[in-house]
Batch of 4 targets.
Target 1
Amino acid sequence: MNGPFDDYLSALSQPLVGVLPGPLVRRIEDEAQSHLEAIQESLEFGGMPSDEAVRVAMTTFGDPGVVAKQHLAVYLAGSRRGTWLARLGWRNASTFVAVGQASFLALALVTLRVVWPSESPISAGVGRAVLHMKAPFSFTLADGHPTSVALLALMALAPFLIGAVVGRLSPYDAASTIMVCCLGASAVTTLVGFQTWPNPEPLILALTQAVYWGPCGAIVAHLVSRLHWRRSSASHRLKEPDSKPVPTSPA
C-alpha cells in the first residue's frame, strides 16, 4: 500500500487488524484500493484534477470507520463465534464482563467486611437490623482491616485493569462503552448502598465508579487499544510481500 489513498486505507484497517484474520484484512484493503482507484480514474477521465479526484473518490466510497464497522459486522455474523457477538457486540460483551467482575468483587469485599465478625457469615447480614449491628456507622474504609485494604486497592486499580482488558479486546470505541457500563454499575451499587445505609461504603464505591472508574478506564482503554493497533498494524505490514515501510497510523 503506497499511494494517495494510504491514510484512508490505514484508517480503514485500524479497527480490523488484530480482530479479523490478516489475509482477510489485506483482501479488504486491496478491494478498497481497487474501488478507490477506479473511481479516481473515472473522475480524471471526465477532466477532474488528480488531487480533487482522490478527495472525491474517498468521499464517494464512504467514511473509513463506517466501512470498517460494516466489514466487522459481516465477519462476526458469519463466523462461528459471531451469532451472539453480532447482536450483543464483542466490545459491549467484554466491557460488561470486565466492569461487572470488578464491581462484583468490590461489593463482595464490602459484604465480607460487614459480616466478618459473625460466626455464621452465610446467614449474617440478611436483615438490615442485623447488618447495622454487625457494622455500625463508625465503620469506615480506612480502618486497617485486610478487606478494607483490599477494597481500597481494588477501587484504585480497577479502572486501569478494566481499561487494559477492554482496550486489548475491543476493536474500536471502547472508551464510550466503558463509561456507559461504569455508570450502570454505579446505579446498581447505589441501590445496594441504600439497602446497607448507614454504612457508607457502597455509596462511596458507587461514586468512585461514576467519577473515577469511568473516565480513567476510558482513557486507559483508548491508549491500550491504540497501542495494540499500532503493534498489530506494524506486524501486519511486515507480513505483506514486497511492501515498503509506511506509517502505521494516520496522522
Target 2
Amino acid sequence: MGASSIGGRLCIGREDVCVALDGDAPADPCEQARYVGREQRNPRARRRWLLAGVAVAALLIAQPALANPILVSTEADLRAAIETARTTPGTEIVLTAGITLSADLPALQGTNTTIRSESGQQFAIDGAGAYRGLFVYAGSARVQDLTIQNAVAQGGNGGSGSALGGGGGAGLGGALFVNAGATVTVANVNLDANAARGGNGGGFGDITGVGQSGGGGGMGGHGGDGGGGHFGGGGGLGMDANGGTLGVLPGAGIVTGAASGGSGAGGAQPGAANGGGGGGSANGGGGGVGGSNASGGQGAPGGFGGGGGARATLGHGGFGGGGGSAGYGGFGGGGGGGGVVGADGGFGGGHGFGGGGGGAGMGERSSLSRAAA
C-alpha cells in the first residue's frame, strides 16, 4: 500500500486510510503534485512516511486493567461515558453489547481513554450506514477488542442559493478519525463495510451572482441556503451541524466545549456551539471549530471541519470544509460557485462553477491527522 504526502498530509492507500499529517510538503498545488510523485517513486521515503503513520501502534503492550470501568450497553450509555472521559483521565469504557448509532457520537477528547469490549467478546459499534464511528479530536485513546462497521463519514452538502451554490464538505474517516495532536492505539479491531463520502455542491439560480448564495458544507453539516436577503452560514463538524439560513438557526457540533461556529453579519444569527454551523445573515458566518464571524461585506472562513460562510466573494472552507460562494475549499472540500469561474476545491475536492464543487471522500476505514492506528 503506497504512501504520499499531500499538502502536509499523508494519505495511505486510495480508499482504506487517509492520514493528515503536519509535514513538510510544499504549499503550492503544482509543487505538491511533483512532491507526491517523488514520494511514490522513493521506497525509502515511502517507508519513512508509513513508519510515521503507524508509530503509535508499536506501543501495543500489555496494560493493567483500569479500576471502576464504565459498563455500557446502549447508545445513550456510550454517549454519557464519552462525555465523562472528556474530564476524567484514565476512563475505561467497556461495551457489554453491540451498539447501533442513531446520530454521530461526541468526539473523544480525554486523556488515556480506553474503549473495549468486555473480556472474551468482540462487540460492534454500528454506524447504521449513516453515521461515523469514532472521532478522536484531542487527547489519547486506546481502542481494542471491537468491531466498527457500517460507519459513514458523510460530508455536508453546500447550501443552494438564488445566486451561487456553496462547495461540498469532505467525508473523512468513516470508522476512525484522529486529529492532529491526538494519539490512538488499536488492538484487535475489525473494520467492516465503512465508507467516506464527500458532500454535493449546492445548486444555483443565477451565475452572475445576483441574489443570495449558499454556505459551504462542513464535515457533516450542510451549508445554509441563501435567499430572502440572507446568505447561508457554513456547515460545521457533525451531521446535525447545519449552517444557519433565513429563519433557521445553525446546529451544534460534536466537539463538546470547543469554540462555536462564527456568527452572521452584525451578530444577527450566532454560530452554534461545539464546532457547529455558522450563522446566516447579510453575510454568512464560517462553520466548524472557531469559524470566523462575518464582517466587511464578505463571507467568513470556516474553522476546523467547517464550511465557509456565503457572500459574493470569499468564504473559504476550513480543514474538510467546502468554500462558500466563490470561496476555496479546504482540504478535501469543494470550491464554492463563482460568478464566471468557480473557486478551486481543496485536495480531492471539485471546483465550483455556478453550483459549488463536491467534496472528497477519503479514508473509508480511518482518517488520521498525525498519529495513526
Target 3
Amino acid sequence: MKSKLSVFTTLLLIYCVFNTAYAEQFALQQSEGGTLYLRIHTRAVDDAQFLLDTGSSLTLLTPDTFKKLSANEPATEAGYVNARLANGQIKKIKTYRLTAFALSDACAFEDVQVAVMPRANNILGMGLLSKAGSLNISLLPPTLTLEKCDQMHTASTAPLSTH
C-alpha cells in the first residue's frame, strides 16, 4: 500500500511541476495621463512597448512587431474583424493566430489571436489578458499580475528580459 501511495505521490508531483501555471508580476510604466504600458524585450522582439487596454478585446500589433514575432513563431491568417477605434470609427482589420506570444522569460501564452494595423500602437487587449485567468493592476507602484502564465522555454519564444 505504501509503495502504491508513494508512486502516486511521485506521479502527481511530476504532473504538477510540468503542468503548473503560476502568477507572474510585471512592472508597468505609467504616463503623465495615467496610461499604463508594459515594455518587453524578447528574442523575437528586441524592444516593444504595449499599451495595457482592458477596454480592448483585441491584442493589436504594429506591422513591425508582427513581422518580428511571426519570423520566429508561425502565424496563420484568422480572417477579419470590425474594430471600433478610440475615435469611434469602425475599421476592418486583418487578424492572425500566433502559436505563442511571450511576455517574459516565465510567462507566455499559446494560440494568441492578434490584429495588425498600420499607424497604431501595440496594445495588450483582453483577448490575450483573459488567457491569464485573472489579472490584478496595482498603481503604487504600477504593476500587472497575471495569475496563470504558461511556462514556454523555447529558443524563439523565451524573452531575454522585461523592464
Target 4
Amino acid sequence: MYAVVRHYSTPPDAVEAMISAVDDEFADRVPQEVGAALYTAVDTGGGTATTITVYADEQAAVRSEAAVAALQQNLGERFGVKEIAAHRGEVVVSRASDAIARPVRFRGQLSPTEPGGLASPP
C-alpha cells in the first residue's frame, strides 16, 4: 500500500463551505476516480485541512494525479484552497477496525441509509 498525505490552507471563513462541498460532491467519488482504497479529510483547524489517501501501490497514486489536480483546481477556484505540503510513501504498518469502512459525513453524521445511520437497526 502507498499513502499520500496532503495539507491544505483556505480562508478560515470558507472552511465549513469547503468541507461541506467535499462531503457532498467529491468524497463518495474520490476512491473510484483516483483508485484509492481509503480517502479521509481532516479539519485541522485555523483554516487548514489534511487529506489521507491510501492506494494499492505507488503507480496507482501516480495515476491519480490528474484527477487530484482537477479536484484541487475546483476547490481552489471556489474556496481559495491551496495545497501547502504533500508527503508520499509506502505504508509500513496498518491496522483498521470495521468502523473505518463506515463513511463519516460532515459534522460526523452518518447518512440515514448507511449501516449505523439513523434508519438502521442498532
